[in-house]
Amino acid sequence: MDIAIVEILNQIEELSRRSEMESDRMTRELAPLENRREDLFNQLSRLGNNENLSRELDQTDEKISELKKKRQEAHNEAVSKIRALRLEAEQVRNRKIEEFKRKYAQIAEERDAIRDEIIPELEQELRDLAIKKKNCDSQLLMLTSEINALDRLEINTPRLE
Predict the structure, then answer these.
(1) Do the domain assignments include residue 157?
(2) Whole-prediction pTM
(3) Do the domain assignments include residue 16?
(4) What's the farthest any 2 CA atoms get from each other in the chain?
(5) What is the tally of structural domains in the chain?
(6) What is the pLDDT of residues 130-141, one digit of tens each?
(7) Percent of the chain with pLDDT over 90
(8) Cα–Cα–Cα angle for 25, 44, 39, nearest 5°?
(9) Residue 160 Cα distances to 31, 152, 157, angstroms
(10) What is the tens place of the pLDDT at every residue in 87-100?
(11) Which residue, 15, 25, 85, 153, has fewest beta-carbon neighbours within 10 Å?
């Protein structure tokens, strides 16, 4: 795998881990506030209109709202960064694809050039060899004819003993 892509994947992993930790931290901060809000709400329901409890409930609601907003902002920021990293990874991948396409095209061109150069040479060699074979066949035929003629001559010639 390409180093740039590995690096991007590591960044995404780290960002995801940090985002999850931050979300967990904020959730832990929210839990006691939400419990306190519920307690305040129950006290207000039992006691009726109490200015101090109402004010504390409003402040708790504001803190809860702020924490939820911060958690959402952190989540949105992490998602945005992850999307940017994924886009970067996609761009790296696309560059690699283009690079491989160029290399493949170059190899294909070189292969075609070699083929265009060698095939005609091989075809010429085959033609030359065919001509040589034809000449050898002709010479063999002539030699065979001469041998046959000599054999007939020898058979027809009386031997002197």
Answers:
(1) no
(2) 0.56
(3) yes
(4) 158
(5) 1
(6) 999 999 999 999
(7) 45
(8) 30
(9) 134, 17, 9
(10) 888 888 899 899 99
(11) 153
Closest CA to 60 of 30, 38, 33: 33
Taking alpha carbons only, the member of 129, 109, 132, 110 closest to residue 121 is 129
- Indicate the DSSP class of residue 31: H
Q: Residue 90 sits in which domain range?
A: 3-117
- Is 86 within a domain? yes
Residue recorded with tokens 């109402």: 54
Which of helix, strand or coil describes residue 2?
coil
**Contact (Cβ atoms closer than 8 angstroms) between residue 37 and residue 59:** no
Length of the chain: 161
DSSP secondary structure letters along 50-80: -HHHHHHHHHHHHHHHHHHHHHHHHHHHHHH
Cα–Cα distance list, 96 to 5, 65, 100 (Å): 10, 46, 6
Query: Quick check: is 7 in a domain?
Result: yes
Tokens 């007939």 map to which residue? 152
CA distance 71 to 93: 32
Q: For residue 57, is pLDDT > 80?
A: yes
Measured at the CA of 88, the angle between CA 85 and CA 90, to 5 degrees, comes to 110
